[in-house]
Amino acid sequence: MAICPKCESWVDEGDICRNCGGSPGRASGYFDESQKRADNYRAEMLGREAWKLYNDYKDEEALTFINQALEYNSRHSNNWNKKAIILESLERFDESKECYDRSLAIKRSNVVIDNKARMIKDYAGLLCRQGYLKFAMTILEEAISEISSIPTEEDIAEYEKLLEAIRD
Questions:
Q1: Residue 152's pLDDT band (boundaries 50, 70, 90)?
Q2: What confidence score (pLDDT) does residue 23 get?
Q3: Is residue 11 helix, strand or coil?
Q4: In Å, what is the CA distance from 81 to each residue of 47, 76, 115?
Q5: Cβ atoms within 10 Å, residue 110
Q6: How confident is the prediction for the chain on average, in pLDDT?
Q7: Exposure b/e, 64-84, CB count within 10 A at least 16 = b
Q8: What is the DSSP letter of 92?
């Protein structure tokens, strides 16, 4: 069901309004816009619930909720950022990086760039401890190039020290 944009009576989606003869395209367009707003609201609420669960150290449950949120709105950059943080907590770093990249593709944000760089630094540290030094160097260089292009709260010197330690 949709509402006719001319007279505001109920109309089956795609039908012509029997009261005023409103076109099906306009009634359908109104329905689509209304559905989009409802989906955005659901995505926002599920994202908030996911974040509460994450803050309660319930990462697997948080991941379920954030995935549901992204089903309602896959263009919600903040929910992609939240998913990246949740995946990082689960030490699923490659997936986390992909989510940060999706967030940044939708909306460029210095906060997301900082989060991604911090995650990469932590990932590089883990890789070093596991003996994957070349891979750690590659991703650290990526993080340094990304954060050096923006005003950041991240201390780039920490990244460079870690990179030099790996090189040595």
A1: low
A2: 55
A3: strand
A4: 10, 9, 8
A5: 13
A6: 85
A7: bbbebbbebbeebbbbbbbbb
A8: -
| pLDDT score at 30 | 53
Give pLDDT, residue 60.
98
Using CA atoms, how far apart are residues 68 and 107, in angstroms rounded to an integer? 20
pLDDT in tens, 54-72: 999 999 999 999 999 999 9
| Residue (of 89, 100, 90, 83) closest to 139 by Cα position | 100
Q: Which of 52, 42, 112, 46 is nearest to 77 (CA)?
A: 112
Tokens 């490659």 -> residue: 94
Q: What is the CA radius of gyration of the chain?
A: 22
Rounded to 5 degrees, what are φ and ψ at 10?
A: -75, 135
Token match 């697997």: residue? Answer: 60
Structure-block tokens of residue 51: 């974040």
CA distance 118 to 154: 8
Identify whether the C-beta of residue 166 lies closer than 8 Å to the C-beta of residue 128: yes
Whether residue 160 contacts residue 167, with contact meaning beta carbons closer than 8 Å, is answered with no
Could you read off the pLDDT of 73-124 as tens digits, one per residue?
999 999 999 999 999 999 999 999 999 999 999 999 988 988 998 898 899 9
- The answer to whether 86 and 62 are in contact (CB under 8 A) is yes
Beta bridge partners of 11: 2
**CA angle, residues 32, 34, 38, in degrees to nearest 5:** 115
